[in-house]
Amino acid sequence: PLKSLIKGLSPIEADRVLISEGMKNIKQNPAGYIKLSLKRIPKLWIHPIGEELIQKRSFFLSKILLIFHYFLLSLSLVGIILSLLNFKRNLTANLMMLVIIYFSAIYAFTYAHPRYHFPVLPYIILFASLGLLSIIELLTKGLTYE
Fold first, then answer.
1. C-alpha Rg value of the chain to the nearest Å
2. Which residues touch 90 (CB under 8 Å, ≥6 apart)?
3. What is the rounded CA–CA span in Å between residue 71 and residue 81?
4. Over the chain (146 residues), what is each successive 10-residue block's mean pLDDT?
5. Which of 9, 37, 56, 112 has its CA 20 to 30 A from that of 103?
6. Can you give the pLDDT at residue 140?
7. Is 113 left (phi over 0), alpha (psi -120 to 50) or beta?
8. What DSSP letter does each residue of 51-106 carry, written as one string?
């Protein structure tokens, strides 16, 4: 049905018609649009940047990249949880979390692709380092005898 709407139109006119139809659909079913947008958030974060390109060259290296990406996300989740536990004392971490949430929300409502999480990756790495440091401290305190 969309092809019949834009048949014979220039690309600019077709774009205007499709945007108008998209806005009508969102207005008619806002809950469905929000539900669809929330489903896009994992799509933004599940795959590492460049996975498709590396997979074309080496299946093994793409799996190593995927494991490293999941490891990084897991450590950053630990760091985020620890930051949330110290919510009142950790203003910088709270601001970094807001940046991550902002990027995730913007791309969830527009178009989620793994390459769009690249600007937020430094914050993810900082939270991952906090998570790793906390795990190392926990293990070394548990292994030392005083």
1. 21
2. 83
3. 15
4. 79 88 90 88 88 88 93 94 80 88 88 86 94 89 60
5. 56
6. 85
7. beta
8. HHHHHHH-HHHHHHHHHHHHHHHHHHHHHHHHHHHTGGG-HHHHHHHHHHHHHHHH
